[in-house]
Design a protein that fits this description.
Length: 124
């Protein structure tokens, strides 16, 4: 894989992806962030952040990058959508990953479940 990553490729160093706990608690699962979507679609609350993180991280390991946006100083942001299942509920999760520089491990920027009205987010 060259630099920058390209749509259709998997995330470089996906196995080393990282995210601070604070990102999950203060934004991704927070009421002011994407928390309401996680609670409605996958019934995930702040107390389950580690399960959500582990499930998402595993799902993106082989997923194809959908979008790549160049950012400042040679960094890039990659968008990936994956299907995840937590507690018997399944949904598509849109995520964004930041690479500070070539060779860096991806850092989770944000993630939120979607496609609830297309049969996801149910026990079916």
């Amino acid at each position: 894989m060259g630099w920058p990553p390209r749509p259709g490729e998997s995330l470089p160093r996906a196995a080393d992806a990282w995210c601070a706990q604070e990102k999950w608690l203060a934004w991704i699962l927070a009421a002011e962030g994407h928390g309401p979507e996680w609670a409605k679609v996958l019934r995930v609350e702040a107390g389950h952040w580690e399960l959500a993180w582990a499930t998402l991280k595993e799902a993106v390991r082989e997923a194809a990058i959908e979008t790549v946006r160049p950012l400042e100083a040679g960094s890039v942001s990659c968008g990936v959508t994956v299907e995840i299942t937590i507690g018997g509920r399944t949904a598509l999760v849109v995520s964004a990953w930041h690479y500070a520089e070539p060779g860096a491990a991806p850092r989770l920027v944000t993630a939120y479940p979607t496609a609830y009205n297309r049969g996801y987010g149910s026990n079916a």
